[in-house]
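Q: My collaborator sent me two sequences in one message, no labels, and asked for predicted structures for both. Can we handle them in order? The first one she listed is below.
A: Yes, handling them in the order given. First sequence, followed by its structure tokens:
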Amino acid sequence: MTASDDSWMTAAAAVRALGVSRPTLYAYVSRGFVRSAPKPGVTRERLYSREDVERLRRRAEERRDPKSVAAHALDRGSPLLESAITLIDGGRLYYRGYDAVELSRTRSIAEVTSLLWARTFETIGTRHLAAASGRLRAPGDLPFLANAQAALALAATHDPLAFDLRPEAVATSGGKILGLMTCAATGRRSVANTIDEQLAAAWGVKRQGIDILRAALILCADHELNVSAFTARCVASAGASPYAVVIAGISALEGIHHGGVTVRVESMLESMRGARNGPAALADWLRQGLTISGFGHPLYRDGDPRAIELFALLGDRYPNSPELKFARAVAESATTMLNQPASLDFALATVVRVLALPPGSGLTLFAIGRTIGWIGHAIEQYATGQLIRPRARYVGESPRAARK
């Protein structure tokens, strides 16, 4: 194992950050609290996980003075919950220790679902897709996310096992939920094929595009404790059903600062398409006082690996696509201008244009894929039996004496 400078630190830096001795640091490593790795090119010196050291430092700080950390407890990068599902480290994304990009190339959606839900590639996760009949469908004229939420709410009331929160039962409900989500996206009454094949058939995607849909769904499956996953875990901690967990996750996902960014990028690319080239399109966009969306991610300084993989797939399967050529021109110009590479949101919007999917399909892929992660987080949270209940640091007026 090698260690990158950004993600790892020396023993001297680690003991300074923690305020402990070297023997104590080594004890943390032996007990599994801090990961260590050999320093590249040096046989006897080791480096220590910056993330693990920072987590221990914050815990010690909170024990000493809980109020001092309350204001920062919800900042990005300040872990609140322990999870064994997803790791973001060294600019890469891992599901249960497996590189997510590699999984998107080599595994099916069913296998990745099973990995996140049951720590195995045996396909238990989607065996109940076909049981998710569309007989409990909401009005078809609703937008996809609203239609999905309504269908899930209806299905929950008709599922006698909705509140069976044992892991295997939640996996069964999860398969039904994925089926209902797919039905809401396609307008079909049942899922006859795999999710990617069902979406491809409904959207008229040719054979070379199915792998791109599968990869997009897998790469969207989870991203640690983002706002929708945290929302899902909070709802699960209350003992709500998996249906309610996914309804809540969808509510967070469609926000304009989360999955809603994908919709903004789709709109941006559609508006720019009449321009001669990428730089001209961006110049016109900025001239209108509008913001360029879909670039930069604080967890990926050197580029979002999910976006990089989707662009590579598009280039391999649709090398002559004018839509891909234009999106790349916009991405190159925006990256130069903003000094930020394209994110997953921009890549999903590009998938929509290259594959000629219905408008808004980027968010549809995001939601169906992320449902896999929400169910995984629900299973993990149910197992703890703990209610997530942060405290607020009151900053209002002091209590006043009662009026006489």
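Q: And the one she listed second?
A: Here it is, processed independently of the first:
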Amino acid sequence: MGRHGIQDGHRARKRFGQNFLIDQGVINHILGTIPSVGEIVEIGPGLGALTIPMAARGNRVVAIELDRDVIDRLRVKLDAEGVGRYVDIISQDALQLDLTTLADSAGLTPPLTIVGNLPYNIATALITRLLAQADQGARIGEMLFMVQKEVAERLAAEPGDSAYSRLSVLVTAQAEVEHLFDVLPAAFNPPPKIDSSMIQLAPRDQPLVPPADWPRFEQLVTAAFAQRRKTLRNNLKPFMSASTIEAAGVDSSLRAQALDIPAFLALARRLDQPD
């Protein structure tokens, strides 16, 4: 493992949110969730903990990495393992990734399988961005990501759960989410200060919110969760009266945490309607 925060001669960089997977048991567990044949888009390959065994078993991997120093070290490792020809490395910020363009330029055949040990500071923004692209026609089969455990709990939460939030609603409206398993800090170098989790997201063939309703739906959900302890009557006061909430079939004395997606959609469709 080397010194704390140093892996294969590379010092982990905080600005890139680098925590390298080093626990072989965890690596094998993750590999077991990833299709063993076909093409994989890997976000943040780091020093190849997943990249090398995926390529060695026959996956073709297109890896998206921002840190040029890591890229140089990864290329050396891939060649040393004899799997360099199975891996294409693209130097790019994952938050700027356009999946349709990537599939065309790299000759990938959708639906895409996307995997990654995501930097915690970009995980939510990246997942939201990828789901938006899926909604706009990018064909994603599944996404398998390592994220902060708290984020995984929010993503997979259901109405009434303490972790149920704006993020839960907006993501589950677009994808089926499964919290697969948790990973302790000791599995990484350097060890993060929090636990991590593997999650699986599969974009829905038919989103639970029609595209035409999405802007109002997102606005409504954001307002409803603005202050979690307040009731819908209070949080939605700038947008609709309590009687309008009731007319949508929703109890205005509830908090947003109690509502499912159909209830939020019913309220969203009341936006901009005169009371």
